[in-house]
Specification:
β1 and β2 form a beta hairpin. The chain folds into two domains: 398 residues, Growth Hormone, Chain: A (Up-down Bundle), CATH 1.20.1250; 54 residues. It is globular, with a radius of gyration of 21 Å. By secondary structure, the protein is mainly alpha-helical.
Length: 458
């Protein structure tokens, strides 16, 4: 879902008969919907059963895919992409389900493996999307996502046990609305600031308003009996530092996905670009996702032996090394492949560690909501990276055949900033407690869905 429309972004204004400004909402709408949906669906999963909420989100993903596949209009496309973005809440819920159904000894490896799919999905999805966009009608992109949603629905329905571990209570509608408004304000200001103008009244108003609403949200959450996000738990040292480190990892991961393709696809006339096609550029990033996937058992064993804190620190060090090398390695295709691979190595260790750190620090009935908030932090990091790095690449460019191409200094500055951000995340990881008593993990037995529903009713 995250890389699905990347190959057709330049053609979206023509394909949807709209302006370039309106076409950007095809990406922005999905980002906003995912950021809002993730913590809300996590809380609903804790309350009413994670499997049930996963199925509902996958159904929304399927409906959104069908809407997009049948759409030639910008409004319908945005509606479909919002539904697809809402479905991305399954990521945090999927990781949280592992805690419920697996023995604690198996949990670390499973979390690392599932977390790695975040990388491999985007890395493999991008060249597949490029192939479809270049050789078939672009609507097939969404029929493919719909097919994947159906497969996921059938697998979850038949394999994942019904959640019997439920917190109960009432849903915090007021908190959800305040959280959504505040988060949308901040994310819109960050993602659209370059287009609206960073000093414009709209950008400043969105940012200030979003921060103000989130402050009100915080006060309200501390006073309500069934909060959407338990801020007292979120303020614990382990949870807080892990979430802050997640912002830096999200930033660093997006930097690789945003900057390297531009470097690879820029024309060689500038003396900087490598002149590759979108498909070749996509294939160059694929090793990043593959190394995340195949590294997951190693990351799990390291976390089991030395603790997830060590994995997060090591991941941060790898990312810093990758971007430090990138400053001087920009002239060959294999340079980009090397940088993407080392970055994937670091992100793989970090992604394997962060959910485990969160789950060790929170009660079992808060797992999905806590993981949801952690996912939002990664999204926030990616959004900030898109705004900051996009501004840098656009501000120092050379014109070739009527097109503005980023200069060498722009790419180098992006890599330096990514390295500094990753270094900050590594320092935050060092500050995590070396030893912490894990919260109790409550595994549930694997039972037939009909039996579990009958027990829950009784």
């Amino acid at each position: 879902m995250q890389t699905l429309v990347t190959p057709i972004v330049p053609q979206l204004p023509q394909l949807l008969n709209t302006t370039p400004s309106n076409a950007t909402w095809v990406l922005t709408a999905t980002l906003l919907a995912a950021a809002i949906s993730t913590p809300i669906s996590g809380r609903l999963g804790d309350m009413f059963g994670k499997r049930r909420v996963v199925i509902a989100l996958l159904a929304l993903l399927l409906v959104g895919s069908i809407v997009c596949a049948l759409s030639n209009d910008i409004l319908l496309m945005i509606v479909g992409r919002v539904l697809q973005g809402t479905g991305l809440g399954v990521i945090a819920l999927g990781v949280s389900i592992l805690r419920d159904v697996l023995h604690p000894k198996r949990l670390g490896g499973a979390v690392a493996l599932v977390s790695a799919t975040l990388g491999i999905g985007g890395a493999v999805g991008l060249p597949i999307s490029a192939l479809i966009a270049q050789n078939l009608d672009w609507h097939f992109l969404f029929w493919l996502s719909g097919l994947l949603a159906v497969v996921a629905l059938l697998l979850v329905w038949s394999i994942v046990p019904v959640s019997t571990l439920r917190s109960g209570g009432s849903f915090d509608f007021v908190g959800a609305v305040l959280f959504a408004i505040g988060l949308v304000g901040i994310l819109l200001a960050v993602s659209k600031g370059g287009e609206w103008g960073w000093g414009s009244l709209l950008t400043i108003g969105m940012l200030a308003g979003g921060v103000l609403v989130l402050l009100v949200f915080g006060v309200y959450e501390l006073r309500t009996s069934n909060p959407l996000v338990d801020l007292r738990i979120a303020a614990r040292r382990t949870v807080l530092l892990t979430n802050l480190a997640s912002i830096t990892v999200g930033f660093a991961f997006f930097a690789s996905a945003a900057v390297l393709p531009q470097l690879l696809e820029s024309p060689t006339d500038t003396g900087v670009g490598l002149g590759q096609t979108l498909l070749v550029a996509s294939l160059c990033l694929t090793p990043s996702g593959l190394v995340m996937f195949f590294l997951s058992p190693v990351a799990a064993r390291l976390s089991a032996a030395r603790g997830p804190r060590t994995s997060l620190v090591l991941g941060g060090i790898f990312i810093v090394i990758a971007y430090a090398l990138a400053v001087g390695l920009m002239t060959e295709v294999w340079h980009a492949v090397l940088i993407a691979t080392i970055t994937g190595l670091g992100v793989g260790f970090a992604y394997a560690a962060m959910p485990t750190l969160i789950m060790r620090a929170v009660p079992a009935n808060e797992t999905a909501a806590a993981n949801g908030l952690n996912s939002v932090m990664r999204t926030l990091g990616s959004t900030v990276a898109a705004a900051v790095l996009g501004l840098i690449l656009a501000s120092n460019a050379v014109v070739v055949n009527g097109h503005a191409i980023p200069a060498a200094a722009s790419f180098q500055l992006c890599f330096i900033i990514a390295a500094v951000v990753a270094l900050v995340g590594t320092i935050l990881a060092f500050l995590l407690p070396k030893h912490e008593v894990p919260a109790v993990t409550a595994s549930i037995p694997f039972v037939r869905a009909a039996d579990a529903e009958r027990v829950a009713v009784n």
